[in-house]
Hints:
20 helices, mainly alpha, transmembrane, Amino acid/polyamine transporter I, transport, D-alanine/glycine transport protein, sodium-dependent, cell membrane, 440 residues
Amino acid sequence: MSLESLNHFITFYFMFPLILITGIYFTLKLRFVQITKLKAGFSCLMHSNHKSEGDISNFEAIATVLAGNLGTGNISGIAVALATGGPGALVWMWVMAFFGAVIQFAGCLLGVKFRGQNQKGEFVGGPMYYIDRGLGQKKMAALFAVFAIIGSLTCGNLVQVNSLSLPLGEIGISPYFVGLAAALFVGYVIIGGEHRVAVVASSIVPFMAALYVTVACLILSYRFEAIPAALTLMISKAFDFSALMGGAAGFGVAKAIAAGFERGLFATDSGSGLAPIMQASARVKSAFEEGIVAMVAPLVVMVICTLTGLVLMVTGATEVEGLKSTMMCTWAFEEGVGHVMGKYIVIVSLILFAFTTILAWAYCAERAFEYLFGLKRVAYFRWFFIAVIPLGTVAHVELVWQMADLAIAAMVATNLFGIIALSGHVFEESEDYILGAASE
């Protein structure tokens, strides 16, 4: 069995039902918190309490999360989803994001509830801490930390640099230069510690998201008449369950579900445990507050993913033979804008997206390494992470993506073990805010 087939098997027969069942359970028990408290999440995001305990503001925390989310998964990852699962994959990405948001809520709530402080006085948390402190399962906590480190080196490092080097190579920039430059810039930021990562992320993320969304919306406005047909095709390909019992059409629906969930996991990181690590150090009044703030990220990410998918479809990029990954996106934006400038906008966005994603993953990997080996040894891993960056320019693109998917699947499995086992704490912390309010 190939790695690609193994990924699809794990996603369709294990990850899909696990996330769906967990998401439905938490959604019902928390009375659709990802809908009812989304507005409150945005409010808390913009009004962080500086007197609360923590190292960074809510805005810096969510910007760091989005820095990890808004990577190549929102550009080249959508091209991969459409190529492997067809238009229906986008619909299943939304299903993944909807249920992933409530899982993200639970994880970030637990991340704050069971967080601690290291020798520097910095707040640290995440799945390894709530699995350890909440359940006493040190081996399972260590296992998650190991998976997080592997994920950081594949998904958060090699994949990002690999996807970055492809379009830059097309305009004549040597991949070796790309790898070296990326290593230098990332090294400068992560050696400065968590606060520098948060400051850089909160400065770059709003700008890069606004630039990309604006251009995508302009392209869609130019081709507005093609959008209804694209949306109809997405829905029909996603929900053709009459064909699911057999035949080529049934195989197509299965691939759409698998590809949608794989890319949805990759793009939003919902359930992977990254957000609880990054948001554990935020200044918040309560664990519940950080939970509802966490739900903002999957929504923002999926809006950008949907815009990317629609641009690829209305410009006809998905029908052009030989286009894959990032190259499909650069072609679509150049075609949509009607000028080579569209291609360069994607390249600039990709540079910013990849850069901030590497920073966010590096921070999470450092926290996982710190949990396993102590704060004093983190510097060794930091330099190792920087040294790996240039290797992404020569890595085999399909192999790197498949390894990244396997690493994230392993993170999700161990993280969901902790979240489900600690669900009583989630409901208890939420009772006054959700269940109590509903009875008034």
